[in-house]
Every structure is written in structure tokens, then in C-alpha cells.
Amino acid sequence: MRTVWWDPAGPTLHMIDQRQLPAQLTVLALHTPEAVADAIRSMAVRGAPAIGVAAAFGLALAAAFASDPQDVVVRVDQAAELLRLARPKAANLRWAIDETLRRAGDRGSETFGLSLAVAAQALADEDVAINRQMGLHGADLLKDGDTVLHHCNTGALATVDYGTALGVIRTAHEQGKHLHVLVDETRPRLQGARLTAWELDQHGIDHAIIADSAAGRMLQQGEVNAVLVGADRVAANGDVANKIGTYMVALAAHDNRVPFYCVVPTSTVDPSTPDGAAIPIEERDPQEVLDLIHQGQQVAPEGSRALNPAFDITPARLVTAFVTEVGILRPPYPEALAKVRSS
């Protein structure tokens, strides 16, 4: 089962509802671009590649119920704007929308709507192939017996299938390497504890969940051989926007001389963004922080305020290497990233 998949008979976009995991595996059936945008905003679907492909299929849904070719164009343009705003910081989201429109071709054609669905499906299939290629490149960086620290969720659930950083771990495991994965809980939405641990369990990969605040201790004590993360956007200079807490992990890894690898498809690299300072940080609902329940009781006192930045910026100087589908990229990053995006 893929995280996101298309049924042309509906037409319907199906996706795993990640809000329900690990308690239950629920599949959503979406029929409108509005429903897709809501699924992206509410994090029913999450992960840069997964939301990009979901948005691409959202364009196909917009076209499916149009009355004529002109109406298709109007509906698709409206859907594109709506979907871009669902997660405005995500580079893959914008890239997937633009790439789907480009591949669909002539907007005045009677087959434009069908071409959108074909283009979106091609992006979905390519995402799986790209992830597998990144897995092969990244697995060469890991040795049998390594302990890997992983932040957030970057597995099949964050992509169409297979995964980015977690895909590297999965590939190494399939090659016969025995790895131990330290899984950051990744507060406040607990993507690590809920999703990454669930995926590792499905694949039979040894792991232990740790509090986010324990990562520095593990690195300091020499218990980690490598850190693997994904990214929501990579700036032209190599600065990385990723789930909140990534920067602290990168600092601790750098201080303890542990390699910090960022695993991303080249579509996540945004050459129009010069550096991390130009990346807007999404502020999510404070209730995600305040609604934490422990032993049946709310943790935060009534009336407390909360700040909830969803991402932080890890400077390029803290990144040991980028793992992409075209290979391993090392500093200087402005030149390396520019080369892969122009090829």
C-alpha cells in the first residue's frame, strides 16, 4: 500500500490518514481539491514528497468535474493557488504543482484534465524510484552494527512509498546490515514516536524511542554513529528547513563529531531561496502543544500560552553531506546544489 494513490474510476485520491496511526490504519477517500488542501493543512498527509504528490492529484480532481475546457483551466488555477497555500513553506508542494502543470501541456486542449492525472501519476511513480535510489546511495554511508539517530518521520509515510532518510535505513537493513535506530519522539505531534517507530516495527528494524531532549546525551556519550534527517526545503546555500528540533540535533552532532546527513530529492532544493533566513517558518496551532495529556490529565495549566514553530533552520555548515538521487553532495554546497538543479 502506498501512502497516496489515485483511483481514476472515481476519480478519487486515497491516502493513509497519518493522524490515526499507530492506533489504527485508516484510509481517506478525497474527491475535491478542497479536501486535499485540508488533508495537507491538518497533516492527515505529511512529508515533503507526499504532500507534493497529493497536491498534484488535487489538480486532477479540480479538472475532473469541469464542464468544458475553459472551465478546466479556471478550476485548476484556483486549485493550484488553494493547494500552494495549504503549506506555503514546502518546496516540494510548489514544485509538484508547477511540474504537473508543465507536464500536462496545452491548457487549451480538451485532454488537459486527463493529462494532469497522467502527470501526477508519473510524479508518484518517480518519487518511489527516486527514494530507492537515495536509499542505495545513503546505505553506503552506514556500516553493519551502526546506531543511527533519526528525527521526525521520513519513511514511506512521508513519501509516496519507501522513504528518504528512513529509506536509507530500510535499504541498509535489506542489505543485511544490523542497525539500531534511536527515534526522537519529535514533539509536539510525535511523528517519531507514532510514525517512525511504527514503520520500523513493520520492517523488523531494531529501534528505541527517546525523548527529544535525550538526543544530545546520546551523541555526547558516543552512542550514535550517524544522524539522518530529511528536509522540507533546502536553500541554495545548503541551509536546511526541517521539523523543529533538527537544529539542536545538528549542533550536538557537530560538537561531538558525528556525521549529520540530510537525505532529500533534488526537488527539495529551492534555488530561488538564497539562504535559511529567507524561509518563512510556519507557526502552527498552539493547542498542539497545550493539549498534551499525561495519565489522563492535561499537562499545561489552564490559561497557559504556547508558541509552536513547526520548523527550524539548520545552517549548511552543520550538514556533513546531502544524500540525493544523483549521489552524495559535499561542501561547498552552493556549487554542488546548483549543479544538480541545473542538470
Low-confidence stretches: none
Radius of gyration (Å): 20 Å
Order of helices and strands: EEEHHHHHEHEHEHEEEHEEHEEEEEH
Termini distance? Answer: 32 Å
Oligomeric composition of the shown chains: single chain
* Number of contiguous helices: 11
Q: Would you report the number of β strands?
A: 16
> What is the overall shape?
globular
Question: Could you give a quick summary of the protein structure above?
Answer:
The protein has 343 residues and is an alpha/beta fold. The chain is built from 11 helices and 16 strands.
How would you characterize this protein structure?
The protein contains eleven helices and 16 strands. It has 343 residues and is α/β, with parallel strands linked by helices. Helix 1 runs antiparallel to helix 2, helix 2 (48-64) runs antiparallel to helix 3 (69-86) and helix 5 packs across helix 6. It is globular and about 65 Å long.
Write the layout of secondary structure elements.
Elements: E1 4-7, E2 12-16, E3 27-30, H1 33-41, H2 48-64, H3 69-86, H4 91-104, H5 112-139, E4 147-150, H6 165-174, E5 180-184, H7 191-203, E6 207-210, H8 215-220, E7 226-229, E8 233-235, E9 240-243, H9 246-255, E10 260-263, E11 269-270, H10 287-290, E12 293-294, E13 297-298, E14 311-314, E15 321-324, E16 327-329, H11 333-342
Helix pairs in contact: 1-2, 1-3, 2-3, 2-4, 2-5, 4-5, 5-6
Features:
343 residues; alpha/beta; seven-stranded mixed beta sheet
